[in-house]
Specification:
The structure holds 2 protein chains of 2 kinds. By secondary structure, chain A is mainly alpha-helical. Helices cover 66% and strands 2% of the residues of chain A. In chain A, helix 2 (39-58) packs antiparallel against helix 4 (73-98) and helix 4 packs antiparallel against helix 7 (156-184). Chain B has a domain at 1-60: Ubiquitin-like (UB roll), CATH 3.10.20.520. The chains are: A mainly alpha, B alpha+beta. The interface between A and B is medium-sized, with 27 and 19 residues.
Chain lengths: 325, 94
C-alpha cells in the first residue's frame, strides 16, 4: 500500500448536498472532476493520491541504485523498463491529483520540503542484487493487493489511473519473483543472499498496509467515500496468505517463528511488525529518509535550467511562428 | 520562481480504424514535446498507432449542472429508437 495513514478531513458542507453525494457513491456512480464534492473528500483525495504519486517517484531510487550494476544486460534492460514504469505511474497519479485543483509544482514542493509523505518502505536501503528480487516480489506484491481494489474507487480519474497501473504492475512482481527464483536455486552464497533480502524486507513490507485496524483512525470516512476499499488488516492478511506459499516454493524461510496456518480462520497467524519502528520511519528517522529527500531535491534543483530553458524555447518558437504568419 | 509547463490532454488511436480516445494528461513546454512525452508515458506497450495532444486550456467542457436541460430533449423522443415501432414478424427481417 503506497498511501499510509492518510488523514481524512472532516467536512462541513450542506447536509442535503452531502446526502446526495453519498447516495451517488452508494449507487456506484463515479465522481468526476467538475462534479460537486465535499471539501473533505477533495482534500483527503489530494493527500492520498499525492502520497501515492510521490511513492512511485521516490520508489525509483532504491531500484535505480542497481541499474548500472545489474548482473546481465537483459536484467539491466528489464530493471530499466520497470523503473520507467514507476515514473509513468507517478505521472498518471499526479495528473489525477491535479484534477482536484492542486498544481503539479505545489505537489512537488510538498514532497521536497517534507509536508507530504511517501510510503515508509522506500526509506530502506537496497544492499544487494537480491533486494531487487525482494522489492519486486514483496513490495510490488503488497502494492498490488491495495491497488487492485482501488480500481473501483469512487473518484473517476483515480480509478482510471489505477486501472492503467494495475495492467502494468504484474510484470513488476513477476520479474522480482523471477530474480528470487534464480538466486534461491543458485549457489549457496546466492541463496543466502536471497534469504537475507527476504529477512530484511518482510516486516517493512507488512508495514506498507499501515497500522492495525484497531489503531487506524482514518479508515471509516474514507471507506464510506470508497477511497479506501479494504481495511489495513484485511489486506495484510491477504498478502501473507499469498506470499508464504511463494516463499516455501523458493525454499526460503519467512523470518517469523510464530507463523502457522490457522485452519479455523483459513489463513496464517503471523507476528505483527514492530510498529514503533514504523512510526519512527514515518517521522523521518528511517535508514534512508534523508538520502531520498536529498536525491529528489537535487533532481529538482539540477533540472531547473531544463524546465526554464524549454519554456523559453517554446515561447521563442511561438513568437517566430506568429511573426511569419 | 517557478513557471509550470502547461497541461496537455492526450488522445490515442489504439488500432487502425478506431477513434482517438482520451487516455490522460501530462505537462510539456510545447506540442512537439507533448507528443514525445505522450509516447513515453502512454504507449510503452504498443497501446497506439497515432497520438493527438491538445492544450488542456483549449478544451471547453459542458458543466455537470447542465445535465438536465442539455440532454432532456433526447430523452423525450423515444421514437428515435427503432424499437419504438412494432413491425409484424410476417413483414420479414427489418
Amino acid at each position: 500500500m503506497y498511501a499510509q495513514m492518510v488523514k481524512s478531513e472532516a467536512t462541513q458542507d450542506d447536509p442535503e448536498k452531502l446526502a446526495g453525494f453519498q447516495a451517488r457513491i452508494d449507487a456506484g456512480e463515479k465522481i468526476e472532476p467538475k462534479d460537486w464534492m465535499p471539501e473533505g473528500y477533495r482534500k483527503t483525495l489530494i493527500r492520498q493520491i499525492g502520497q501515492h504519486a510521490h511513492s512511485e517517484i521516490v520508489g525509483q531510487l532504491p531500484e535505480g541504485n542497481w541499474i548500472t550494476r545489474a548482473p546481465t544486460l537483459e536484467r539491466k534492460a528489464i530493471l530499466l523498463a520497470k523503473v520507467q514504469d514507476e515514473a509513468g505511474h507517478g505521472l498518471y497519479l499526479y495528473c489525477a491529483a491535479e484534477t482536484l485543483g492542486v498544481s503539479r509544482d505545489e505537489l512537488t514542493e510538498m514532497l521536497l520540503d517534507g509536508r507530504m509523505k511517501y510510503s515508509s518502505i522506500f526509506n530502506y536501503p537496497t544492499l544487494t542484487w537480491a533486494d531487487m528480487g525482494a522489492v519486486g516480489w514483496l513490495v510490488d506484491g503488497a502494492a498490488i493487493m491495495n491497488q487492485v481494489p482501488l480500481q473501483r474507487t469512487s473518484y473517476g480519474p483515480y480509478s482510471r489511473a489505477m486501472i492503467r497501473i494495475c495492467k502494468e504492475e504484474s510484470f513488476h512482481q513477476r520479474q522480482g519473483y523471477h530474480i528470487m527464483m534464480k538466486m534461491a536455486q543458485g549457489t549457496p552464497a546466492q541463496k543466502k543472499m536471497a534469504q537475507d533480502a527476504l529477512n530484511r524486507f518482510w516486516y517493512p513490507s507488512l508495514m506498507m498496509f499501515g497500522p492495525s485496524d484497531k489503531d487506524s483512525v482514518h479508515s471509516a470516512q474514507s471507506m464510506k467515500w470508497k477511497i479506501k476499499m479494504n481495511t489495513n488488516d484485511e489486506l495484510r492478511q491477504k498478502f501473507v496468505d499469498q506470499t508464504v506459499p511463494q516463499a516455501e516454493f523458493l525454499g526460503l524461510t519467512v523470518p517469523d517463528d510464530t507463523l502457522c496456518w490457522n485452519d479455523e480462520k483459513g489463513g496464517y497467524d503471523f507476528a505483527e511488525p514492530d510498529w514503533s519502528e514504523f512510526f519512527d520511519v514515518i517521522q523521518g528517522n528511517g535508514p534512508c529518509n534523508t538520502e531520498r529527500r536529498a536525491a529528489r531535491n537535487k533532481a529538482w534543483d539540477d533540472g531547473a535550467w531544463v524546465r526554464e530553458g524549454l519554456i523559453a524555447h517554446a515561447a521563442k518558437k511561438r513568437a517566430a511562428k506568429l511573426a511569419a504568419e | 520562481m517557478s513557471k509550470e509547463w502547461p497541461l496537455w490532454e492526450v488522445f490515442i488511436r489504439g488500432q487502425h480504424g478506431l477513434n482517438h480516445r482520451h487516455v490522460g494528461s501530462l505537462h510539456a513546454p510545447d506540442a512537439e514535446m507533448a507528443i514525445k512525452n505522450a509516447r513515453d508515458v502512454y504507449t510503452r506497450r504498443n497501446e497506439g498507432v497515432s497520438i493527438w495532444v491538445v492544450e488542456a486550456a483549449h478544451i471547453t467542457a459542458s458543466s455537470p449542472s447542465d445535465k438536465g436541460p442539455l440532454y432532456e430533449p433526447s430523452e423525450s423522443k423515444v421514437y428515435r429508437h427503432p424499437t419504438f415501432f412494432d413491425i409484424p414478424d410476417e413483414a420479414g427481417h427489418m
